[in-house]
Amino acid sequence: MTELCYDLAHLAHIELLTPKLEESARFFIDVMGMSETTRQGDSIYLRGWDDYEHHSLKLTQSPKPGLGHYAFRASSPQALQRRVAAIGKSGWGKGWSDGDLGHGPAYCFTDPDGHNMEVYYETEWYVAPPELKPALKNQSSRFPDHGVGLRRLDHINILASDVRATRVFMENVLGCRLTEQIVFDDGSEKASWVTVCNKTYDVAISEDAYGAKGRLHHFTYAVDNREDILRAADICLEHGVFIESGPHKHAVQQTFFLYVYEPGGNRFEIATAGARLLLAPDWKPIVWTQAERQKGQAWGMKTIESFHKRGTPPVEDE
Amino acid sequence: MTELCYDLAHLAHIELLTPKLEESARFFIDVMGMSETTRQGDSIYLRGWDDYEHHSLKLTQSPKPGLGHYAFRASSPQALQRRVAAIGKSGWGKGWSDGDLGHGPAYCFTDPDGHNMEVYYETEWYVAPPELKPALKNQSSRFPDHGVGLRRLDHINILASDVRATRVFMENVLGCRLTEQIVFDDGSEKASWVTVCNKTYDVAISEDAYGAKGRLHHFTYAVDNREDILRAADICLEHGVFIESGPHKHAVQQTFFLYVYEPGGNRFEIATAGARLLLAPDWKPIVWTQAERQKGQAWGMKTIESFHKRGTPPVEDE
Amino acid sequence: MTELCYDLAHLAHIELLTPKLEESARFFIDVMGMSETTRQGDSIYLRGWDDYEHHSLKLTQSPKPGLGHYAFRASSPQALQRRVAAIGKSGWGKGWSDGDLGHGPAYCFTDPDGHNMEVYYETEWYVAPPELKPALKNQSSRFPDHGVGLRRLDHINILASDVRATRVFMENVLGCRLTEQIVFDDGSEKASWVTVCNKTYDVAISEDAYGAKGRLHHFTYAVDNREDILRAADICLEHGVFIESGPHKHAVQQTFFLYVYEPGGNRFEIATAGARLLLAPDWKPIVWTQAERQKGQAWGMKTIESFHKRGTPPVEDE
Amino acid sequence: MTELCYDLAHLAHIELLTPKLEESARFFIDVMGMSETTRQGDSIYLRGWDDYEHHSLKLTQSPKPGLGHYAFRASSPQALQRRVAAIGKSGWGKGWSDGDLGHGPAYCFTDPDGHNMEVYYETEWYVAPPELKPALKNQSSRFPDHGVGLRRLDHINILASDVRATRVFMENVLGCRLTEQIVFDDGSEKASWVTVCNKTYDVAISEDAYGAKGRLHHFTYAVDNREDILRAADICLEHGVFIESGPHKHAVQQTFFLYVYEPGGNRFEIATAGARLLLAPDWKPIVWTQAERQKGQAWGMKTIESFHKRGTPPVEDE
């Protein structure tokens, strides 16, 4: 029996492209309650109150919204070398970068759909300045008294023109585990969820309705309780933030969610998984059928049309 | 740099000794909302609604309350062999058992304090009977409409005459990671928390106030939200269940908790960690000082005296 | 300035007609967590755990679902006499009945749309049998350890062919206060909410999409927290209860809600108002416009079509 | 049968004395999420996000903490006249004041223990400035995105040297209803809770452990859900606010609570009653015995000593 791969420790950060850098920053800081670590060039670096690294979100000014890149932290220097070797062998490698603010050398690559990715090990542990020093020393920074209060980066959901190809890459080259997927009656793989740790997913891959490549569906931060999501909806309502869907509970993965659009046009999710974890080392992927997907979300809400189609950057026929 | 050990997948089950088998079973089934998988001899096998194995709690009739044994599931057959070799080498091994209802061969051993433990890989995935079939197929069985509704086994807290010795064994022999600990001004290690996965602890080891060996402080099941704990307190109140402490929030590990005594006399905890996970591969253990511990729990509640002393089985001078 | 009328103390009970008496009873008892006080003839009498009277819900076997009648308790014997006089004068009175199990003589009448109503003062305070005796003596009976755990009757929503006529009757004859309403651009009154106490509504009156008379839209029990509604959705999901809409938050009245169909076909709501109360004696009714209503619910969910149309008993063109 | 008195609509505002005016204001605004309506002289006027009047809390600079006065709003001009007549007749009247910012003429008086009180009818409805304009027009102002987010004033708890005398005054002169009380074995009335509306209490009267007169135990604002209280505790922890007790649930009145000290030294409570209301017009007061009180709070937490003794202003032997 092949042993599981533990080389990637966790989803580490996302670079989000936004045509409205300052407005996006104000949304994530004022409304969502994130804190700004630093700014450099066209980028602003942000983190949730319990993210332990320098940043988990990098906002970068760009003509169009979308994904800049996303990154995993490796479990060790050795694990990093193993994954770099595997990626190189796969032919999707692009080479090393010197790193970025907050982390060391990163190996850059793309998945078969063209999403920019990287993996690194060396990182800078966040040290809270006095005004963000937490009362309890086992958390990264102060629990915020304003905004939604995002705890930590949870997952990313990319769109892919070929879900299967990207999912197989994530499994075979990166060592991810497939936990759930949607497969239609004609055998087409509509979406797949993969993980590198005990979270039930770090990356979701959904079919791009336009067959476009390299697009972003959404990315997600975790809060602790379902009530935090309800409060987030109240706060978004008052701030005029567009709520696309929720609060509700997904059937797939059972995440309790709220989807909104940040000012740059990207879809953003606030979610909680409760105490749900992937603990079994021999988990058999759950396969949802076409009929099951058409039932809508867990409590019967029909999935809104835009959720099936919209991604960033926008494509011409949208 | 030494790589982390992933050989143990998760805390798998606990055998609890109880002088009142039927009453303990009624407590865990009716009040806590667990389901009974089967009975055999003097034992009743129970599980939370999202535990994927045959059982996570085995109640066994015994003259005194306390811990029978507790078990880890290994990550693979190879991982099992590696841990068995390491335990054997440590001198604490006892040899193989044929396993039990629901799981295959288990290697038995003790920690240096004498707690009975075992590790196994082969297991029987739970298949819900029709009346417990869940509406969503990505959960193990129905979300219960009665009782507290424990989701899954979370952790165990043992008492040890020598915390350090047991903690070092957990680290060096089993491959656990130390995440937090309490160390007094005289250097004595009062409590340590270790994990084998992304939960921030699977096992807590506290100093036995009586210097006794092999005793149990409590064990814990997880629910999804803090509100579930508050509702659990209301249910316990109505059922006349003795509430020792809580609902409140621990400073150490920040768990939101409720401690009660089950009818057999063992302490039992219902808890939620929210979205808190140990994701960093290079986490540096948090060390709490004597002064910090004396501050009480997170929101200032003084820790109740019995919490520092009482364990099962009871010792003479209690 | 005319003083407010306090003659009606509160909405007291609802008689619900159901073609499936036993199934409806099982729904309200097993799934919703109500308790059965007694049975007599074709009726079963139920109550929420903190309803202080003999019953707040009377289920009666009937060929079709719908409303049997609904009742207010008067604030005093004198208040009862005043309201009886006013109703008699309005021409809608039907005369006295001897009362029912649990309450004394009731004066029967209809509103202009034909809904059967009654008002009474004498009542039988519920005394919990030993197995339902609460741990805290300031509540009517035990907090249930099963089902949703409905606390108390909250409100009723009737359908009327002429909303204005019924609303004016509620105000002028019964002494209700109008708190919110929906008035379309053409001046038509689509819905009105009235109260007799500090709740912001006891009765909602919505336009019947079919112009039918005397129909029921839904009735509602209160729970304490929003999380209770989310848990109710999980329980309904497992029990195969049809969820029409929610959990979500209404814009009008801001109630956090879940709408389901009970087995007899009637719509039923579980809701919480949080700490929202009508305290101002000079509250000015909130008037929602056509455009505002079309925005959907508070967080943007479009109101489902069936919610605008379906009532009980069903009408031919449904 | 005597009819209930509805002359007082609700508890309207509290004037709180504080030796640290600015710090107290910062606490209520920044940490508790209240908004400031205006400042005048040595006073700052504040309100919760759904308080409909100009203010519900007036902070006034003073050498010592304590209660300035507290006020009821009458149900109508006629009701005001009736209560003024009754108070005058009781001998506790002090005469009319011209009112204050936000309300019209007020009749001033004391209870037999010397607490300053007033009653008025004319009031100024709060109109939110653009930046506090709510998204939903049926609430007074924006749901705050910072701090605890107090919804509305809930109740006040005064200390009295003679609980019975003050309680009888509240009942006979003001028309309050007694809902619960604690009476010791020797017949002494230790605490009483009275209401003027459907809340189960607007004023609590507790025995002053020092026999002092006119002191304040605490006052309370309501939030919507229990989870809001838990979040409040987290926020207080981060702000270094002293938490005296809670979160926990009272046995008496079953309020879910958190007690803290504001910077001026006064005790302050954040609480929620859930869906609990006093609806019965013939409610029989619940009488708690000495033994019942000694059981502690609902879930067994022993009441902290300071809670039984401390009041403001402090007395010499504290």
Structure write-up:
Four copies of one chain form a homotetramer. Chain A has 318 residues and is an alpha/beta fold. Chain A has one domain (8-139, 152-309): 2,3-Dihydroxybiphenyl 1,2-Dioxygenase, domain 1 (Roll). Chain A has six helices and 17 strands. A nine-stranded mixed sheet of chain A has the order 14-15-16-13-9-12-11-10-17. An eight-stranded mixed sheet of chain A has the order 2-3-4-1-5-8-7-6, covered by helices on one side. In chain A, a hairpin with a 5-residue loop joins strand 15 and strand 16. The longest helix of chain A is centred in the N-terminal third of the chain and has 14 residues, at 77-90. Chains in contact: A-B, A-C, A-D, B-C, B-D, C-D.
List the defining traits of the structure above.
318 residues; 9-stranded mixed sheet; homotetramer; alpha/beta; 2,3-Dihydroxybiphenyl 1,2-Dioxygenase, domain 1; 8-stranded mixed sheet
Strand order of the largest sheet of chain A: 14-15-16-13-9-12-11-10-17
- Mean pLDDT of chain A, nearest integer? 97
Pair with the biggest interface: C-D, 49 and 49 residues
Rounded Rg of chain A: 19 Å
Biggest β-sheet description of chain A:
9 strands, mixed
The total of beta strands of chain A comes to 17
Question: What oligomeric arrangement do these chains adopt?
Answer: homotetramer
The SSE order of chain A reads EHEEEEHEEEEHEEEEHEEEEHH
Tell me what portion of residues of chain A adopts beta-strand conformation: 25-35%
Which shape of chain A, going by the Cα principal axes? globular
